[in-house]
Amino acid sequence: MNKRLTMVGISLLVIAIIYSACAAPAPAPAAAPTPAESAAAAPAAEQPAAPAAQAGSRLDLVKSRGKLICGVNNQVPGFGNVDASGNYSGFDVDFCKAVAAAVLGDANAVEYRYASGNDRFTLVSSGEVDVLFRNSTWTLTRDSAEVGMEFMPVNFYDGQGMMVRKDSGITSLEDMDGATICVQSGTTTELNLADVFRAKGLDFTPVVFEDNDKTYSAYDEGRCDGFTTDKSGLVATQTKLSNPNDHMILEETMSKEPLAGAVFQGDPVWADAVRWVVNGLIQAEESGVTSQNVSEMMGSADPTVKRLLGVEGEMGAKLGLPNDFMVQVITQVGNYGEIYDRNLGPNTPFNLPRGLNALWTQGGILYAPPFR
Amino acid sequence: MATDIRSTSWVNTNHPAPAQKPPASEVGVLGWLRTNLFSGIGNSFLTIVTLIALYFIVTNLVQWLLGAYWEPIWVNRKLFAVGQYPLEQLWQPALVLLMVSLLFGLSAGRWGSIMRNLGVGLGALLLALALIPIGLQAQVVMAASLALLLIGYLIGARIAISGRWLAVAWVLSLPATFVILLGGINLPRLGVTWNFAPLVESNLWGGLMLTMLLAVVGIALSFPIGVLLALGRRSNLPVVKLFCVGYIELIRGVPLITLLFMGMTMLPLFLPSNWGNPSQLVRAMTAITLFSAAYLAENVRGGLQAIPKGQYEAADALGLGGFDKLRFIILPQALTKVIPAIVGQFIGLFKDTSLASLVGLLELVAVGKAVIQQPAWLGVTGGVAKEVYVFVAFVFFIFSFGMSFASRKLESKLGFGKR
Lengths: 372, 419
What we know:
- The complex is a heterodimer.
- By secondary structure, chain A is of the alpha/beta class.
- Chain A has 16 helices and 13 strands.
- A 5-stranded mixed sheet of chain A has the order 10-9-11-8-12. In chain A, strands 5-1-6 form a 3-stranded parallel sheet.
- In chain A, α11 crosses α15.
- Chain B has a two-stranded antiparallel sheet.
């Protein structure tokens, strides 16, 4: 009896220890992940973990490290890929390069960290990566303290689309009453599809598959009248069909998928720096500053261009960046339009129309707040 | 009254009857078919169904294999082999391969048995890679490794090198591998930074190299821990015993993927904050080692329990202390018994490392996933997923089958199968 009591006591103690070990530090990253990080990299690291306010921003950490750690995907054609020699490329990857060029003056000073769908936000909140550019949709939950992301300006407006056969006579969703539609199971795509069709009072039969490859194969075999997923994904998928030219993507967008970069919530200095790099890329396109003409534009009389390129206004200094940070970005990476064209534009297999991702002056909704 | 049986007229006593040919349905191909495939209505039916199924499977498979688009694998062969390791520093992994080949050669010559089988397998693989035009430099490295393997074998077989030193060399080869791949030693905490080449951070290591590394480190580091746990589990000290049982059962009660996620997200929380964040590789290795140690402990416990009590008593009678008893009597016998089980565990672990792809390490499967989505294959009808996954499965099969074959030889040599 006594022995058994001892055993139970010891077990409880062990459980208590494990529990406290698990539970106690958990809120720590939410409260102050930066001290551990900055202590790790800063030369004078002997200081004990200091409160977040005293420890520098991640901006200082990145500068002292001399390298930006960027969380990216390597499995989305056009957005994040790794090529045969192991180099990363893609639309999201170019935003990492832009941030590195702005902060460190070198677009190649980036360490890419593959962020899987499961752990991408954990990587940010635990301080593993400085910034996340990984086709992530900006949602309320992710922005809230529950997930703890600070989202950057949207760099790509995606949305769910519908692919149909050209000879089917379907030109809009209204023509699809009673249609059979191939869709991937367990995704927001499936839910959006139901929502949109119900709202329009249309009837449809979903044909559901486990993964994207099976879904489009079934559509290709003619088992469905339509195939739905995000528009950027539809464009990539279309090239894999037997006769890509026999298919088209409907104009309508069935859901909002604003893809944005993210940094850790609670480091306003770093968030501002990254935010204004993205804004700067959009402003640069609006002002017509490209990687080709950036040196001529330095002499421009336009005050917006002057402030953008750091000729006047000390804009960079206000963010803790060099005043010419956008010059570095545009010279080494290009403006938003150049990034878009390089990865998704007419000379790529995607040939994705700008759509919502055009500037506000050209019918899209890309709009950078004023550089002043 | 005794009657001589030979006097009875109806008994043929002159000669044995001339042997008749067996019926045609019982011998030859026909006989074999009859006995093995068509021995009854049920079996005949199963045979026909199986043949039809086989026909469809084989023809479709051959058709697919011939028509498949293997370009993505060929183009990305470097990515599959070593991941993002910098091109201009590939001599470092090559050096590791040379080192391991030499060690395998020496061990095969010195110890024979399973090491010889593994050596032959490695040699065959190196020969194949040296002949396939994967790139001149790579082929030269493969050929040189093969040469070192053979030289090592000859030295090991002819010259009596010390087995103990060879074992020490194997143990040292593990940290050496890390130093060579990293390009130096980088432990700023301890004030040690030394490099002979630009440092290659471990997040650039990948492909088959990383898969191998995860498996080898997992099994090598878990071995001492596992032995200690097994001994602890049989200890008479309640706290030690409780801890060991608790650890083993806790770890065996959760899937490896859970431990990997734990390692990724929680390991930094357990370390002093001024240590900085361990690399993803270290975290995955920690999780795999902890996992593997629990299973290894159970294997070793099996060996310990197989030792008759008389061995302990004999050791006691000789006046050996606790440590000496283990060192000279118990462990040598117990560990020999469980070598096949440990090899089996290693093969399992080798395949389990593919889970590391889910926590962001670019090992073989993760490289495959990335290759499938490269924009270069966008125009390919049906995508390239099938080809890539078949290739990855093939690579896993070659190594797993090689190791399993080698260990089967060992088992028959040790004679466990016959008991």
